[in-house]
Amino acid sequence: MRFARADLAQFLFTALRWLMLAPAAISAWMATVVLGMLLMEPLERLACTEAFAFAGACGDHVRKQALITYLFVGLSALAVETGVVLVAPAGRRACLWLAFLIGCATAYYAIAWSIDQSMTGSDFSYAHTAAACGLVGALLYDRVLTYLPAG
Fold this sequence. Notes:
Radius of gyration: 20 Å
Structural class: mainly alpha
Distance between the termini: 25 Å
Number of helices: 5
Strand content: under 5%
């Protein structure tokens, strides 16, 4: 009877980890977005040197804000992949590449949707950044997972 309970507990724990895969990826993305929003102003102040300051404002504000945004877009791609790799109970490599593909599709769809809604002609550079950082992260994780034991 004890053996059956242990098997049931293991099965339920594995099922719970599979169910938590998508929420872990979304939570990692949201945590990076919130962190980026919280750190945007302090990083802008840090990046605004006296040479760019004019009347208390940073003269190169837009470029610095875009660079900080690119930084956190790239970090969010890596955070999602980290969450997926840590939570997946099995098939971590397959889950990693699936998360990469879904993340790329989501990033490009979100940019295309925002262009359609605003008609501003925004470019796809944020999606390109997410895809590039996600690819680098996926390749590195794939290399690391090759040498780690399963489970």
